[in-house]
Amino acid sequence: MELPLDALEARAAATGLQGIPSKVRAGERLAPADALALYRSDDLPLIGLLADEVRTRLHGDAAFYNVNIHVNYTNWCNKFCSFCAFQRRPKDEGAYCLSPDQVHEELSRANPEATEVHMVAGVWPALPYEYYLDLLRAAKAARPDIHVKAFTMVEIDQIVKTAGKPLPEVLAELQEAGLDSLPGGGAEVFSERVRRDLYPKKMGAERWIELARGIHAFGFRTNCTMLYGMTETLEERVDHLVRLRKLQDETGGFQAYVPLAFHPANTGLAHLPMPGPHERLRSIAIGRLFLDNIPHVKAYWVMLGLPVAQMALAMGADDLDGTVSQERIYHDAGAGTPEALDRPALHRLIREAGRVPVERDTLYRVRRRFDQPEEAPRPAPERPLSV
């Protein structure tokens, strides 16, 4: 049951959020100043309650997930981002680059129920263009019916440079080889100041937006992200959200927003604290309230942690991502979450949060809705003793 608006406004007036509950109830778009007020406020219960109202309005009691596999095909990278624990040069200890045959083998023995493979990795300019096409072909050869979601904007930028062809031509060739959609990562935070300080070899915000615009125009769907908890200011976080919302107004190509909490362990920024549970939940809720034109907000449990991801389902998130087997990037950065979850574990998390598990495909088409709790396996009846 929704609380009376006057009670919400009275609470908001005392915590610097006056007027925001009225906008949310009316379905009115929040201004950047509203987003900044939400980031500055300590009233997480009110922020979460408002975000949950929006989530309920959009998705009812559904909590989405899919059965997916992660393949991080190489950790070779020449970007040397300060926040990354995954990157290696080819001769470094622990460096690897999977061949297309190895990707085929991994997928051939991976979860047979998976409907999606998520393939992202480092960036190494010496890898030939044909390598990326062969990766896609190998994935489809191993699992012809699987949806291949691959390549962040940073990877696409390098693939286009390596190919020496226009973006639409490259996208058409990647699609013919097996690409079905893109994850949309690599944005980090759209601050030129932070980029210069922490990842100067990576492309800037304008190039990321240009690529996303072209990818959406081609017909591919993507997600969008923000990596927060480094050295960005709250104003820079808001600017990032403003740019995402503006691009979505233009293209409509974003399916989900995924706020990513920075994991400092094993990185060049290990002295920074990881965003705490309060900050992780607030980032979920603000994403839901401000990004009114993006259908889904994902609580990526690998980075949030299972308890926080579960709480996020009551604070604006409607998606837990998926089973996520074989993820390496965030576990190299110290993620203490499991490396995979099975369907029963996801269902349990969702039901404990008061939601209904809904299995989706990558494009958010519903595969199965599990309204009734699954029965636990019954023990075999005891056999009578022989006499």
Question: What descriptors fit this protein?
Answer:
single chain, 387 residues, alpha/beta, four-stranded mixed beta sheet, three-stranded parallel beta sheet, 16 helices, 10 strands, 43% helix, 12% strand, globular
Strand content: 5-15%
Q: In sequence order, what are the helices and strands, one letter per element?
A: HHHHEEHEHEHHHHEHEHEHHEHHEE
Give the biggest beta sheet: 4 strands, mixed
Give the terminus-to-terminus CA distance.
62 Å
Could you estimate the helical fraction of the residues in percent?
40-55%
Low-confidence stretches: 327-337, 376-387
Mean pLDDT: 92
Structural class: alpha/beta
List the total number of helices: 16
Backbone CA Rg: 22 Å
- Give the CA-based shape: globular
User: Would you count the extended β strands for me?
Assistant: 10
User: What topology, given as strand order, has the largest sheet?
Assistant: 8-1-9-10
